[in-house]
Amino acid sequence: MVKITVEVSEEVLKKVLKKYPGLTPEEAVLKILEGEAGQESSEKGVIEEEIAGLHSVVNNLQRLVRVMGDTVNSYSKMLSDINVKMAQMMEILQDLSMKVEESKKGREQSAYPLPEEARPSYRGVERRRSYRGRERRKSAIEILGEQKVMYESEIAKKINNRDAFFDRLRRDGAIVLALKNQRVAVDRAFWEEFLKKVEELDTNREDQMKQALGKVGYELLKELSNSALAYFDLVRKKWVVNIEE
Question: N or C: which end of the chain has fewer CB within 10 A?
Fold first, then answer.
């Protein structure tokens, strides 16, 4: 036991003895000290319990976030798979539509045969030959190779499922970019040549840009600039294209 000497005023001592009647001054003071120590220990225990409870809540929230993340990822994968399937179905439907159209043309040609050309055989007897050639329909990537650039606004009225259309062009090797208000498909060879010309371009004057890039290239650079995908660096006198394929 540790002996402690405490000096208190008579007024304080009277209050202590009044609170604990029947006890000596020493016992009354000891009672007060024990009470304060016990209260502090009790409060500390409550705080520790509250902290433990908060840790439990945080752990539960973390588990909930992980579960929700797994669920969202699962649904995202499902949506991605559905989009791929829809694109494949659109390709099949387009191929079937082309075959039906070709079959219809074939039946029309059978009903109305083309004039036959007569030519002599080696034996002097005329032999007749009919001409019923069928022109193959150009694919989207072939048309893009001729046009070099294809904007979504130009095909909006012709193509119903434009997502599948641009996905098909991308798979066939085209460059597909998302502009401010639309998408654009660019022939890969033209795109690579376009980037080389832009890199060498040291002016933002319209007439000089058209002369260096051509009409199609100039319009493409203007669309990229309007969509914040390209800008002219006034300090370096150089065009910068911010696009990652």
Answer: N
Residue 32: which domain range?
10-78
Residue 173 CA to residue 86 CA, distance in Å, equals: 20
Residue partners of 121: CB distance under 8 A and separation at least 6: 127
3-class SS letters over 201-214: CCCCCHHHHHHHHH
Count: domains in the chain:
2
More confident residue, 27 or 212: 212
pLDDT in tens, 68-101: 877 777 777 777 678 767 766 776 876 777 777 6
For 3-21, give one letter per residue: b (16+ CB within 10 A) or e.
eeeeeeeeeeeeebbeebe
Q: Is 201 left (phi over 0), alpha (psi -120 to 50) or beta?
A: beta
